[in-house]
Design a protein that fits this description.
Blueprint lengths: L1 E5 L10 E5 L2 E4 L3 H14 L6 H10 L3 E9 L3 H5 L5 H5 L6 E4 L16 E12 H9 L13 H13 L11
Antiparallel strand pairs: 1-2, 3-4, 4-6, 5-6
C-alpha cells in the first residue's frame, strides 16, 4: 500500500510528498460504508441523473479509506513490547496491538501465504478512495485475504477500544 505524506518544511502553496510503502496493511473502514460507497459510485454512472441528484450522491461518497499499518510479528514482538511482556503481546492482551496468525497459501490470493503479522493501532493512515480504487484497478494494491467473522469483528472492537480510550491527566493513585 502506498501512502503519500508531505515532506517536512515544504510550503502549503507548493507541497512536496514522500512515498511511504506499507508491505502489509489492514483496512479498518466499515464494510457498510464501503458497500454504500460502491453502490453510490455505481448509481453515479447512471446518465439520466440531473446535476442536483449527482451533487447529492457525491456527498454520500466515502472520502478516505482507513488503514492500519502491520509488521511481521517475528522480530517485531520484542520491539513492540516496549518494556512490557512479550507474552502479553502474544496473547493479544495489549490493547494497542493485535497479532494475526499466518495465512496459508490456499487462503492467500497470491498463493504465497502470509506470515504472522502484528497490527499496531497507533499507526493509522488514510488513502483517498479515488486513489485506492485506481490502485486496485491497476492491481498496484491488492486484497491478499479476508478475515471471516468473528475475527474481523474482534479486531474492529479492539481498534475501537484503543482509539476510544480516555486519556487521564495522571494515573489514579491507590
Amino acid at each position: 500500500m502506498l501512502q503519500l505524506i508531505p515532506n517536512p518544511g515544504t510550503s502549503v502553496a507548493a507541497p512536496a510528498f514522500a512515498p511511504v510503502y506499507h508491505s502489509y496493511a489492514i483496512l479498518l473502514s466499515q464494510d457498510c460504508d464501503l458497500a454504500s460507497d460502491d453502490l453510490t459510485r455505481q448509481q453515479l454512472e447512471d446518465s439520466s441523473l440531473n446535476s442536483e441528484q449527482i451533487g447529492k450522491k457525491r456527498k454520500k461518497l466515502l472520502k478516505q479509506a482507513l488503514f492500519c499499518e502491520m509488521a511481521l510479528s517475528e522480530g517485531s514482538i520484542a520491539a513492540f513490547a516496549d518494556g512490557g511482556s512479550k507474552d502479553t503481546l502474544k496473547k493479544n492482551d495489549d490493547f494497542r496491538y493485535h497479532i494475526l496468525q499466518a495465512v496459508t497459501k490456499e487462503a492467500d490470493s497470491n498463493a504465497e501465504g502470509i506470515p504472522s503479522l502484528i497490527v499496531n493501532f497507533k499507526q493509522l493512515f488514510t488513502v483517498p478512495m479515488e486513489d485506492l480504487l485506481i490502485r486496485i484497478a491497476s492491481q498496484e494494491t491488492r486484497r491478499r485475504c479476508c478475515m471471516n467473522s468473528p475475527y474481523f469483528e474482534h479486531v474492529s472492537n479492539r481498534f475501537t477500544y484503543y482509539i476510544g480510550r480516555i486519556g487521564l491527566p495522571q494515573n489514579h493513585l491507590v
